C-alpha cells in the first residue's frame, strides 16, 4: 500500500509563534516510539485511534497553503507499520525546550509533549476526542533516536491480516492502496468513484453492486451491497477462518435491528453489517476502508 501523509485541518493548526521556534536539529531525524498503558477514568483508550506509529521521521514539509501554517509533517519510515491517523504533525514550543507530536483521525487521537534534546526524549501523552465533555487519558511517552535506515522493529508484514480487497470471477482483484489506473474492470461513476464491472468471487458472488472510491488516484474504499437473502452467517464463518475472530456488535433499538462484524489493523478496516426494521428485509453491506483516507 502506498504510504500517504495527510495535511492537518484548521482545527489542528499551531500558532505562528510556534513555527518561529521550530528547531532544525530535529528535522529528518527518526525515532522509535513507546508508551506506558493509558491511565484515565471512565475512558477506553485501547483502540487504534490512540496508538502512534512505532517509528517516525520528522519532516520539514509544512501544510499546504490555504489551510494554514505553523506545523510540520510526521512521516512513517518506509516499511514500518503506520498508524490509523489522517494527520500527523510536530513542532517545538516557543521556548525551544519541548517538542510536541500530534496525531489525529480528524475526530480522535493523541498529543505527546516531550522534553526536547539530542538524545532520548521523554514526556507525557494525552488523548483527545471531539465530544463534549471530552474524556482524557494520559500515558508516559518515549521517543528514542534511531537510524532511519535500520530495519523496522514492526514491519508492515507484522500486522494481523484483514480483508483489504475483493477478488473477481475474472481472476483479477481490487485492493486498497492500488493506483486506480492499474486496476482493471472499473467504470467511471463520478469524480473519484468507480463501479466494478464484473462479478465478484465468493463469498460476494451475488453482490448487487460493488463500488470503489479513490483519493489522489489511489483506492481508499470498496463498498459492496448484497441481497437481503445473502447468507450472512456463512460468510462470517468463511471470513473468520481466513482472517481470525472479528469484533462483533449487535443492537436492537425500537424496531431496528443492527449487527456488524469488523476486522481491523493499521492498514485497513473491513465491516460486514446488516440492518433492518423488524419484519422487513435485511440491508447487507460489506465495506473496506483505508482508515487514514
Textual characterization of the structure:
Helix content is 6%, strand content 41%. It is globular. Residues 1-21 have low confidence and may be disordered. It has two domains: 10-157, Lipocalin (Beta Barrel), CATH 2.40.128; 165-289, no CATH class. The protein has helices spanning 16-20, 232-243; strands at 30-35, 55-62, 72-76, 87-92, 98-104, 108-115, 121-129, 138-146, 165-167, 173-175, 186-188, 193-196, 209-215, 218-226, 247-253, 256-264, 269-277, 283-289. An eight-stranded antiparallel beta barrel has the order 1-2-3-4-5-6-7-8. The two termini are 12 Å apart. β6 (108-115) and β7 (121-129) form a beta hairpin. By secondary structure, it is mainly beta. It is built from two helices and 18 strands.
Percentage of residues in helical conformation: under 10%
Could you spell the SSE succession in H and E letters?
HEEEEEEEEEEEEEEHEEEE
Can you tell me the CATH class of the largest domain?
Mainly Beta
Shape: globular
Here the CATH topology of the largest domain equals Lipocalin
Helix count? 2
Nearest-integer average pLDDT: 87
| Rg calculated over all Cα atoms | 21 Å
How much of the sequence is in beta strands?
35-45%
E-strand count: 18
Lateral strand order in the biggest sheet: 1-2-3-4-5-6-7-8
The low-confidence parts are: 1-21
Measured distance between first and last alpha carbons: 12 Å
- SS content category: mainly beta
Amino acid at each position: 500500500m502506498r504510504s500517504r501523509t495527510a495535511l492537518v485541518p484548521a482545527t489542528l493548526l499551531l500558532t505562528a509563534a510556534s513555527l518561529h521556534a521550530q528547531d532544525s536539529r530535529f528535522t529528518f531525524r527518526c525515532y522509535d516510539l513507546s508508551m506506558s498503558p493509558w491511565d484515565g477514568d471512565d475512558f477506553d483508550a485501547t483502540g487504534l485511534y490512540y496508538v502512534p506509529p512505532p517509528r517516525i521521521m520528522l519532516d520539514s514539509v509544512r501544510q499546504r497553503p490555504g489551510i494554514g501554517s505553523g506545523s510540520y509533517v510526521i512521516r512513517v519510515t518506509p516499511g514500518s507499520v503506520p498508524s490509523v491517523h489522517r494527520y500527523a504533525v510536530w513542532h517545538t514550543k516557543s521556548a525551544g525546550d519541548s517538542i510536541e507530536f500530534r496525531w489525529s483521525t480528524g475526530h480522535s487521537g493523541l498529543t505527546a509533549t516531550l522534553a526536547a534534546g539530542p538524545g532520548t526524549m521523554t514526556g507525557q501523552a494525552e488523548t483527545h476526542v471531539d465530544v463534549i465533555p471530552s474524556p482524557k487519558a494520559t500515558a508516559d511517552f518515549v521517543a528514542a533516536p534511531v537510524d532511519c535506515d535500520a530495519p523496522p522493529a514492526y514491519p508492515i508484514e507484522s500486522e494481523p491480516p484483514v480483508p483489504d480487497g475483493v477478488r473477481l470471477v475474472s481472476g483479477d482483484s481490487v485492493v486498497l492502496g492500488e493506483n486506480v489506473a492499474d486496476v482493471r474492470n472499473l467504470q467511471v461513476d463520478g469524480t473519484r468513484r468507480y463501479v466494478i464491472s464484473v462479478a465478484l468471487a465468493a463469498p460476494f458472488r451475488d453482490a448487487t453492486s460493488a463500488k470503489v472510491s479513490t483519493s489522489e488516484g489511489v483506492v481508499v474504499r470498496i463498498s459492496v451491497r448484497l441481497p437481503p437473502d445473502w447468507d450472512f452467517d456463512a460468510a462470517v464463518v468463511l471470513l473468520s477462518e481466513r482472517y481470525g475472530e472479528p469484533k462483533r456488535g449487535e443492537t436492537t433499538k425500537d424496531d431496528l435491528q443492527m449487527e456488524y462484524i469488523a476486522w481491523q489493523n493499521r492498514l485497513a478496516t473491513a465491516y460486514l453489517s446488516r440492518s433492518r426494521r423488524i419484519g422487513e428485509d435485511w440491508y447487507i453491506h460489506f465495506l473496506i476502508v483505508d482508515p487514514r483516507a
